[in-house]
Predict the structure of Glucosylceramidase.
Amino acid sequence: MKQTLTILLCFATFLAKAQQVEVWLTNADKSVLFQKQSQTLSFGNEKTDGPTIFVDDTKRFQTMDGFGFTLTGGSATLINQLKDAERADLLKELFAIDQNNIGISYLRVSIGASDLSDHVFTYNDLASGETDPNIQKFSLAEEQKDLLPVLKQILKINPAIKILGSPWTPPTWMKTNGNSKGGSLKPEFYQAYARYLVKYIQHMQKEGIRIDAITIQNEPLHPGNNPSLLMLPSEQTTFIKKNLGPAFKAAAIKTKIILYDHNADRPDYPISVLNDPEARKYIDGSAFHLYGGSIEALNEVHEAHPDKNLYFTEQWIGAPGNFAGDLKWHVKNLIIGAPRNWSKNVLEWNLAADPKQNPHTDGGCTECLGAITVGNSIIRNPAYYIVAHASKFVRPGSVRIASNSTMSLANVAFKTPAGKTVLLVLNESDKPQAFAISVKGKLLSQSLNGGSVATYIW
């Protein structure tokens, strides 16, 4: 009897160890959508004929800030219009940190309107011919309608969420063309704009909302959006070193200053600004989108200035979406590619839209598919699953660790603050691929269908 009990205990211990490897899967054909797999997995000595992904937690790289979305003004409007219970359930699903939710840990918001707000506004709009260089008429009144109420509900669910603010335009009275679209910042109003951004951070703090970082300007080389602003590298350098940096210092603002916030085809832009010794002392890092260029350009900026951080702040999915293609491209380039090239976060654009991809400004994006569609029901779109594969498991404070790229298996690995290892794997090919995961000499044999994504946690 005693011997039987000992055997049972040993078997129970074996099973407990076997269950330590958790797998969450999404198939390109949507037959499985971010579902935890039921099979029992464990590392052993079994060999496979396929390639091997070697994970080495002794080699460590950047610390992650999180994964998430842009909470546009339009997203906030749609979410805030939901019935109380429906809104509470949705926000819990998106932001709560537990087994049943996806745990978004990073949000970007617009400073004033973005092109996915229902109208253009800033926090210092004046009648024609008026100016306010001391920013005495600053007001967050427009955000009291939807954005602030939604952010406050999110912060109750996850008080530690990081928030990045990005302006699409300064107040039009500061601009060379007096228009929300295009134009440049007048040099005589550089100091006024610095005061405006200081007041933004201070007023948000009064609302109980801490802004972790701001970028200087969304897409500074794309003045054709509404709203938008052209801001050349030399202008951003001058603004940071002579106005914004000193203004933050004088007001004891701890919010990080992040430059650029545009496509990876112009790494020379952030590098040139960081080359200025006066500007760089105020700068935390650089932010990127990927509507042009290659994600590997982030590594070029890291090599030029390895003491400065990198961020990935925007990428859209065009409506109506192509699930298999969107899943593969975004996971490969953003969820895997951006961290492998030193990014501390990954943000998709945008969180929510209605079934017709509204709201947006006159001249704003008409085809931006939200991560969720808010209509008669809530529909979860490709970006929801793309981000969920990382946000749920790669918590803030996780550190990227070494893993090798092999054949068609794009991957990235992390060590979490709780001591877990997280490995994301994408099968880029169209056919099923058998492979092994190797950790400290032990192997785990796996197979993924073509275009499928899996997150492994142990």
Residues 4-19 have pLDDT under 50 and may be disordered. Residues 236 and 414 are 34 Å apart (CA to CA). The first strand starts at residue 22 and ends at 26. The chain has two domains: 21-61+402-457, 66-396.
